[in-house]
Write a structure and sequence with these properties.
The complex is a heterodimer of chains A (255) and B (265). With 255 residues, chain A is α/β, with parallel strands linked by helices. Chain A has ten helices and ten strands. Chain A has a six-stranded mixed beta sheet, sandwiched between helices. In chain A, strands 2-1-4-5 form a four-stranded antiparallel beta sheet, covered by helices on one side. In chain A, α5 crosses α6. The radius of gyration of chain A is 18 Å and the shape is globular. The termini of chain A are far apart. Classes of the chains: A alpha/beta (255), B mainly alpha (265). Chains A and B meet through β6 of A and α5 of B. The complex binds adenosine-5'-diphosphate and magnesium ion (MG).
């Protein structure tokens, strides 16, 4: 089977700093892949390379077997409509109300109608938020609420591939679990392909079919979720058990 | 000898890299401008954004631009009177005031005041959107940030600045008129008739052309610096400062060029 997404030899540098170093990774259709790795190892950069927000210095991104790295103009816009992206910081438009943020993919910043507003409220309920927040501004919400509104925005247009960049960071365990359930149901019931970045091992155990670990610009291990605690890889062991001692030097981890 | 050569070479390399960096910056700005203008003429259009920006740039700048013109026109009339009286040319006050206001001070001071208000605000807003990834989010939601964010701002400034400067010119002349009639003993009807007699169509045209060019510079510097800011809050601060300073310099330079082209021959 052709992978939904395939990264072949992706390298990305910022100045002299090598962030991604000939990285290879693939995600199968309908699969939920979780990528783990220390802060600043380039997980978000990897997502941005796939979306074309950053251009990789080398390598290819294939989606359904087609090279999308050099897409331009209309083709690139059409390509992006297949993706939903939850940004790590939410990235809500602070000049627009919550419901207009959520429906942005449909309204493109124009006024929007009652039907779209209803859709926004429905999505708010899915992410565990009250309909009353629909008319608030993002700045009036807590960080965790913003994250959930951003999640609603990412799934609003029913994309086939969704990237979740730390979806549960900043949420309490109960609300985090609402999000986990939502991601599980998106994958199971709607058949989306999900690529999630997280540090939250409870979340990873719940949503992942497969887990991959990014370290030093490469995927150093990947395997089924059930094997993350018996991977036999000292780096993965140290990370999933949250130990300061081990092959990953904390100086490197933070960089 | 060899160290001398080495030093010379390293100096040359340094000069070269500075020149290249400068050329690179100009190239990036040109590319940005080309893209923004190119996308501004293509659909989709965002009329609501345009109106919003016209209000922010034009309407809300009226008080500050109006007051600037009023005070400057009044001070100018007083100075021309004092200066002119040294060679019995006090009567030139209305004529010199109107020419100085319409040709130079109205557009230049208006441009600088609006740059202070608007370039900085644009840079701060777009810069914040950049560092909080809102611009990336726009792109992933299939909205072209050049069309949605940049084009309305450029167009709004281009349309609104001439109107603003027109108002500012009238207020500036009125400032001179107030001093002239209230303090310097000019007859009101006489002052106005000399004013209209010396004001020519070319003066007004050049004033409007300057205003439009300055409006473009104001929005371009605000957008360019904001759009390319990086490095968190400090980066946004830098972008804001750079936007204002570069808008100021470019406005004064453009003014000189237009003045020489229009009135130099
Ligand atoms: N636009 C950028 N310009 C320069 N450096 C960047 C940029 N984006 C990310 N980086 C750097 O790349 C590294 C990886 O960042 P990121 O992917 O955000 O890490 P994380 O794995 O925590 O998501 C960091 O060291 C960061 O400083
Ligand atoms: Mg990240």
């Amino acid at each position: 089977m052709t992978p939904k997404i395939e990264l072949i030899g992706i390298s990305k540098r910022f100045g002299r700093k090598v962030v991604l170093d000939e990285l290879n990774l693939s995600v199968m259709p309908g699969e939920s892949l979780v990528v783990i790795g220390g802060s600043g190892t380039g997980k978000s950069v990897m997502l941005k390379c796939i979306l074309g927000l950053l251009r990789p210095d080398e390598g290819q991104v294939l989606v359904d077997g087609q090279d999308v790295t050099r897409l331009r103009g209309r083709a690139r816009t059409a390509y992006r409509s297949r993706f939903g992206m939850l940004f790590q910081g939410g990235a809500l438009f602070d000049s627009l109300s919550v419901w207009r943020n959520i429906t942005f993919a449909m309204t493109q910043g124009r006024r929007g109608n009652a039907r779209q507003r209803d859709l926004a409220i429905e999505l708010l309920q899915k992410v565990g938020l009250d309909a009353a927040v629909a008319d608030l501004r993002p700045s009036e919400l807590s960080g965790g609420m913003q994250k959930r509104v951003a999640l609603a925005r990412a799934i609003a247009a029913k994309p086939e591939i969704i990237f979740f960049d730390e979806p549960t960071t900043g949420l309490d365990p109960i609300r985090a679990d609402v999000i986990n359930d939502l991601i599980v149901s998106l994958v199971r019931d709607l058949g989306i392909t999900a690529l999630t970045i997280t540090h939250d091992m409870a979340s990873a155990r719940k949503i992942a079919h497969r887990v991959a670990m990014l370290y030093n610009g490469k995927i150093i291990w990947d395997g089924p979720r059930d094997l993350i605690h018996s991977s036999g890889n000292p780096y993965v062991d140290q990370f999933v058990n949250g130990r300061a001692e081990g092959p990953i030097k904390t100086g490197q981890l933070v960089r | 000898m060899q160290t001398l050569l080495k030093d010379l070479l390293s100096v040359l390399i340094r000069i070269g890299s500075v020149v290249l960096a400068g050329l690179g910056a100009v190239g990036r700005l040109a590319q940005f401008t080309g893209r923004a203008v190119g996308r501004a003429v293509l659909p989709p259009y965002y009329p609501a954004r345009l109106v919003e920006q016209m209000l922010i740039i034009g309407y809300f700048s009226l008080p500050v631009v109006g007051l600037t013109a009023l005070f400057t026109g009044a001070a100018l009339a007083q100075q021309i009177f004092v200066g002119g009286s040294r060679f019995n040319a006090e009567s030139t006050v209305p004529a010199v005031t109107v020419i100085a206001i319409v040709r130079e001070l109205g557009p230049v001071l208006g441009g600088l005041m609006v740059a202070g208000r608007v370039s900085s605000a644009m840079a701060a807003e777009l810069g914040t959107m950049r560092v909080t990834e809102q611009i990336d989010a726009l792109t992933t939601l299939r909205t072209d940030p050049y069309q949605y964010l940049i084009a309305p701002r450029l167009l709004a400034a281009l349309i609104v600045m001439p109107l603003l400067v027109l108002v500012s010119n009238v207020i500036g002349v009125f400032g001179g008129y107030l001093i002239g009639t209230e303090r310097l003993g000019f007859n009101a009807a006489n002052y106005l008739s000399i004013t209209s007699q010396y004001l020519e169509g070319d003066d007004v045209t050049s004033s409007m052309v300057k205003a439009a060019v300055f409006g473009f510079i104001i929005a371009l510097m605000g957008c360019y610096n904001g759009f390319h800011s990086s490095g968190g809050a400090a980066g946004v601060g830098r972008a804001t400062t750079n936007a204002v300073v570069s808008a100021f310099i470019l406005i004064l330079l453009a003014n000189l060029i237009i003045t020489v082209l229009v009135f130099g021959s």
